[in-house]
Amino acid sequence: MIPPQVAYRKPNNINEVLSLLHDLGDDCKIIAGGHSLIPVMKLRLNDPENLIDITGIPELKEIRDNEKSITIGACATHAEIARNEVLRQHAPMITTAASMIGDIAVRNFGTIGGSIAHADPAADWPAVLLAANASIVIKSTDGQREVDIDQFFQGMFTTAVQESELITAIRIPKTAFNANSTYVKFSQPASRFAIVGCAAAVEKGGEARVAFNGVSATPFRDTAIEKAIMAGADIETATANTADAVSVMSDHFAQSAYRKHLAAVYARKALSAVL
Amino acid sequence: MTLIGTSVKRVEDKRFLTGKGRYTDDIKLPGMTYVCFVRSPHAHAEIKSVDISKAGNMPGVVKIYTGADLTEVNGVPTGWQVNFKNGDTMREPKHPLLVANKARHVGDAVAMVIAETYAQAKDAAEMVFVDYNPIPAVTNPQQAAKADAPKVHDEFADNLVFDWALGNDKAEVDRAIENSHHVTSLEFINQRLVPNAIEPRSAIGHYEEQIDKYTLYTSTQNPHLTRLLLCAFVLGIPEHKVRVVGPDVGGGFGSKIFHYTEEALVTWASHQLKRPVKWTAERRESFLTDAHGRDHVTKAELGLDAEGNFTALRVKTYANMGAYLSTFAPAVPTYLHGTLLQGLYTTPLIHVEVDAVFTHTNAVDAYRGAGRPEATYLLERLVDTAALEMDIDPAELRFKNFIEAFDGVEQAGYQTQVALQYDSGNYHPVLQKALEMVGYEEFRNEQAIQSNGKLLGIGFSTYIEACGIAPSAVVGALGARAGLFESAQVRVQPTGKVSVYSGSHSHGQGHETTFAQIVADRFGIPIEDVDIVHGDSDAVAFGMGTYGSRSLAVGGSAIVRSMDKIIEKGTKIAAHLLEANPDDLEFANGKWTVKGTDKSVGFGDVSLTAYVPHNYPEGLEPGLDFSSFYDPANFTYPFGAHIAIVEIDKETGKVTLKRFIAVDDVGNVINPMIVDGQIHGGLAQGIGQALHEGTIYSEDGQLINGTYLDYVMPRADDLPSFEIDRTVTPCPHNPLGVKGAGEAGCIGSTPAVVNAVMDALKSYGIHDIEMPVTSEKVWNIINANS
What we know:
CATH architecture of the largest domain in chain B: 2-Layer Sandwich
Structural class of chain A: alpha+beta
Largest sheet of chain A: 5 strands, antiparallel
Strand content of chain B: 15-25%
CATH class of the largest domain in chain B: Alpha Beta
CATH topology of the largest domain in chain B: Aldehyde Oxidoreductase, domain 4
Number of helices of chain A: 13
Helix content of chain B: 25-40%
Number of strands of chain A: 14
Oligomer: heterodimer
């Protein structure tokens, strides 16, 4: 398995990355852990002319404890996130999800920014970041913008990131619901991606956020469940119509009826853990 | 000193565990070129044209061959001929090295791109433009057998390769089934599996013009057989001009027995180009082109009388051969499957029919167990199902029908209704022991009160298999185009160190340890003084290779025969040195002693004397070096009892294997650790078939799950800690009393797991569940009934 020839660059600061992105346009791909990009290049399904490696930029790896939020650098690996104590304290579903991704080698190399930029609907990050009410910090030569997570995932392998833009960080607000949160998943037995992954973040008597990956082509929050929980419904009632609002995926591991059933089962598991 | 029965640590593991194994792909020769194949993306397509003009001008390209360049070259043959019931000859199409006009499965090779580097070959292969006209394909053997199915080979009237039957008179079996008190009937698919050896196949052809000799390095389980087929059937090269080397090989599970087109192509191309030519499969190519296993569509019926005695068994199977006939393919559903349907039982009447069928899929051939897992699966599923239907305990039903013990010495072997004669067997104790290990009564009590949203189930499998293949005359009469003996040369060096040249081939089995134990034990020398050489046709006189759990029973016996000759000659030399009569000597603990005295001479002194024959018996040749060819008198017949306990989560349908008990009888055991390892690996593979593995083809013949993202392999965290034990019933007809352990775990375990799932689901009134037993299939059953 050998990928096509590609030019490789490894800048050591963000501005250099941004100007390369600006100059090269769609002739380039950002690479960090490479766990999604390298396989598709080896399968020759993607053939970029240039790779820009962003793993040599220290500030992209930082996990920073701010007053009202925690920012996770886009190049933080899943393993670094899994063992971060501040995140464990303020948003336990983040560290839980990180520890469930792939295997040790994947967690040591793969990055959160790379995963969400790829936007595989069966990846573990989307549900967790949706439930966390995260925001995504994006930079380009035109400046910086911050995208609300609810606007970030736009479809299978599609996000709000535009050509020539770079995800630099993920911001997790320190909230009561994030402090009481969990992530559970039913794994696809070969790849261990999520057939159903459910993240639940609930402030008892306050805000509730429940989100899924694996279930539909676009990761989503199930607002019907959230409203029911906030209105004081019991878990069984709240999850009775799980995933009704979305088109549920089918494959040879789980046809849509079974997948939809699993979504409800895993919603109950997640909610039972936080309520 | 006794090394036999001792868990000596594997001497080969140091190089494997430190990454220093030397595999075919590790070999780099001066001037070597690299191959990338252009393979058909269609299961069935006319090839209208192949345009290599652009690819030929790509950087580094040395040569591109297409099917048109090879029309004068033979295809790869099959090694076994099974004719039609009416005597008509088996249909054996040409399996061309590169296809010219038609692709018959996804992965069929259309062009061979050779370049200075693999990257260049791969880039150029993308620029080969093939104009395909896709036509309808068929992948299921039962559908392919129908008159209106798309034909795989235009030269034949239909897709039938042969039809075949074995056993008692069909009419008598039909009558017995009809008159039975109860008939248990199952129809199922024994699904197709991908072997998934950890080392992808690799081959290097190296023609040296100055000496007019070829060397083929290849990831093979049997270098000599590959050489024979390559020379005599494909390329027509004199056999003495070809050396075939199977260096370290990273697993085979059967898939590296066969002579593949790529081996012939790199050999042929190296002669054309006068340069070494290397090909190594990418994992996707392994999925598409390593011969697959199983793939039977079967209807099986078991008749029972009112007491639960088996009265008759009737089986009809459609066996998928794929698009071409691989080396052993015709033997697998016939002589390795139909002949095992006696099982451990006294069933008096058995009839089996097999229709072997071409389909637009990759070839199917022997895969760990090869035919015996299919036979065991159908029998053991029938037995547990009959027990459920007749409300008889499944263990009791087995005890009732077991063949009584026979040792093959005092009592004769057991003559089955399906041609074979079992060598020795004692079946009650394995099941008895397994029941004690599992705590059967306690389990049934626990199962009755289970109430936590989980379903518990227990499943049984009591199996027999035939291995140590095989008596040459017998297999010859059954259509084998080769003998199935084994050779071994034992060379005692002047200093008393020993080199053994074995025709068996180790690709994970640990021969370098087990064989050395036998030799060191017999000669009374340290195991470090024994070296096992295998896998090189220039070093080893001849060999039939390793498969069918045959290495120790056949290859090991050949070593014993050669050691007998060494001892016999050594006794003459020792008698001369001791000035005694040879009949007065005994050999033990590495020395010859005059019986009843303390006069002795050591193994090293005798070997030195053999090579420095100054003071030497008159008329005796110098040297201490003997070869033997051992042709076994019969197959060997390991057996065992496996019990699985599963727990099913009613909410998700997920099946968790909680316990697995295996009591196997593989005859005498040389190295218990290695045998345990073989059993563990076999269990994992058999459980993998039950719960995880299986190819999925689309309507048009695409392999949907051809990567590790989609093809589910069993993993350590899917498996419980195995509880294993053994009984020992020695083989009566080989000098080591060994039977074979390589496939037993894989043969017995699959039905035990499925039977356990069925037991857990027995309140849902279902008759069968299709393998692999996925969470969704189980949930669908639970959901439909709740």
